[in-house]
Amino acid sequence: MLNDITLGQYFPGNSPLHKMDPRIKILLTVLFVVSLFLVSDPLFLIAPVIFIGILYLIARIPVRFLLKSLKPLIPILIFTTVLNLFFLPGDVTLFSFWVIQISDKGLLNAILVLIRIVCLIAGSSLLTYTTSPIALTDGIERLLSPLGKLKFPVHDLAMMMSIALRFIPTLIEETEKIMSAQKARGADMETGSLVQRAKALVPILIPLLVSAFRRAEELALAMECRCYRGGEGRTRMKQLKLHLRDLWGSLITVILCGGMIALGFLL
Amino acid sequence: MYAIEAQNLTYTYGIKTPFEKTAIRDVSVQIPAGEFVGVIGHTGSGKSTLIQHINGLLRPTSGKLLLNGKDIWENPKEIRKVRFSAGLVFQYPEHQLFETTVYKDIAFGPTNMGLSEEEVRLRVEEAAEFTGISSALMDQSPFELSGGQKRRVAIAGVIAMRPEVLILDEPTAGLDPRGRDKILDRLRRYHQAQKNTVLLVSHSMEDVAEYCTSALVMNRGTLFAYDTVENVFCRTEELEQMGLAIPAITQVFHRLAAAGIPVSRNVFTMDAAKQALSAALEGRGRNA
Ligand SMILES: Nc1ncnc2c1ncn2[C@@H]1O[C@H](COP(=O)(O)OP(=O)(O)OP(=O)(O)O)[C@@H](O)[C@H]1O
Ligand SMILES: [Mg+2]
Predict the structure, then answer these.
(1) Which chain A residues are closer than 8 Å to B49 by Cβ?
(2) Residue B57 and residue A206: Cβ atoms within 8 Å?
(3) For an engineered disulfide with A257, which of A35, B151, B223, B287 has Cβ 3.0 to 4.6 Å away?
């Protein structure tokens, strides 16, 4: 049940996409997402759909994984599609029945929004699937580092993020353990009314909080013992270096997104 | 009929993900009622995975698990009942404490069974007695206790359900020798009084030799042996090959025997060692 949380999950692999520089990947993902929103004709969205499909093939990420990260969004997808489809007035009515009217604009818009959201999730999930949390925060830190000159605590922020990311799987594991332990004492989490189920969470949440605090304290202590004192003057063990594959990846994505944006403005 | 019977039990974690891992493979074993079984094996050999099948926390990928001759997954809706008849104490069980008082925490299990308040009280007191928790502690917060006390409260919480099979995953991990002996002595007393089946996962061969009647050895996800403690520890070389040491005292006797001193190699506990040594010394005195 907890295994369903895939957003932000890393899918280890060895593809060129996995090996790309995290900074480049973050920038390209942002570019891709922005260009999705600058296109207003569903026809031009065919290209990004194919593009994303190819990238998933290259990264060897099973479609099952993508579907899993889309699952929580199904209600929103249905909601927006229905809204657009039935309530957007247009020039030509394609279909009408009782109070429901489907116009050409409504249909077009519904398709547009649907593809956009799916591409958005697929694109950003691809980033987290192919980039380990550590690499991701490393990339973010490096990208934000110019802000450090403005006294913005970039390093602290990045450290907080990487600690948070680092502990998500640990906390999930811990939750599973505690759940098992309480289940072994007959805790019933699957049946009963809403109130009963909410009450059943208490035996899980309290030990979880206690252990989270214990872990935080231990970690702080351990960091202090190793003389951690913030980012100033720290060098890194893993230097980020740009490779040829980063250049190629950027070139292809920039051409695609640039083309989409240009067409979006021209039309 | 056996208290616990595994038939070709196989379990794979994370099926259909890149993290797929078969933790136990084709394990078949029959454990009669009333045994005090030591479950041993190198780290990662699948001990915890195996025992979580006995109370239905894990559902076998293939194979069956029978409690008293009955397949526990025959009716998946009834699995909660199985959890009451096979009580499982996890590693570091004190991490599961959550109630405001010790009493309430021990009562969590029996209350979940739907027992009357008096029955719950009776069982909590009985369990506290078995685990050596004094009545003065009952109204304290479990978070204020020492590590060993917390651990005993958590064990009491499972014993209070009066399970037919009691399973403990390394109940002494991280305790000082005193706390360890206390818990193990209490468990032995519990086993002798209740005459039920107890499974004890342990990394200490000394403890297994001292307290258990039989031993189950896991090796890389498969069952290596299930036999009496003596028979298992006789297979010294095989055990050492899988990274398990026999009790230190047994090693001493192996050396003694190898040095030509007429002692048995099968000495596993301190008491047995004393007897064997004094017998050997007497024998020598007579010869001289
Ligand atoms: N929740 C899990 N998800 C994935 N793999 C797991 C999980 N729990 C255990 N494993 C794997 O299954 C194998 C057996 O683990 P298990 O915990 O049963 O070993 P163990 O004998 O109890 O070890 P230890 O003595 O360290 O407690 C290990 O290789 C472990 O990596
Ligand atoms: Mg274990």
Answers:
(1) none
(2) no
(3) A35
Whose alpha carbon is nearest atom 14 of ligand 1? B46
Task: Compute how many other C-beta atoms are within 10 angstroms of the C-beta atom of residue A235.
Answer: 5
Res. A2: pLDDT tops 80: no
Tell me the CB-side half-sphere exposure of residue A212, using CA atoms within 13 A: 16
Q: What is the pLDDT of residues A153-205, one digit of tens each?
A: 888 888 888 888 778 878 888 999 999 999 999 888 777 788 888 888 999 99
Q: Where in chain B is the domain with CATH 3.40.50.300?
A: 4-242
Q: Where are the alpha helices (DSSP H) in B78-116?
A: 79-85, 102-112
Nearest Cα neighbor of B200 from B105, B91, B72, B73 is B91
Distance between CA B269 and CA A82 in Å, rounded?
A: 75
What kind of fold does domain B4-242 have according to CATH?
Rossmann fold (3.40.50)
The C-alpha of B14 sits at a distance from chain A's nearest C-alpha, in angstroms, of 9
Exposure string over A111-140, b if 16+ CB within 10 A, otherwise e: bbbbbbbbbbbbbbbbbbbbbebebbbbbb
**Which residue in B263, B265, B279 sits closest to B233, CA to CA?**
B265
Q: A107 C-alpha to center of ligand 1: Å?
A: 52
Residue A92 gets which letter from DSSP? S
Other Cβ atoms within 10 Å of A249 Cβ, number: 20
Residue A11 CB neighbour total at 10 angstroms: 21
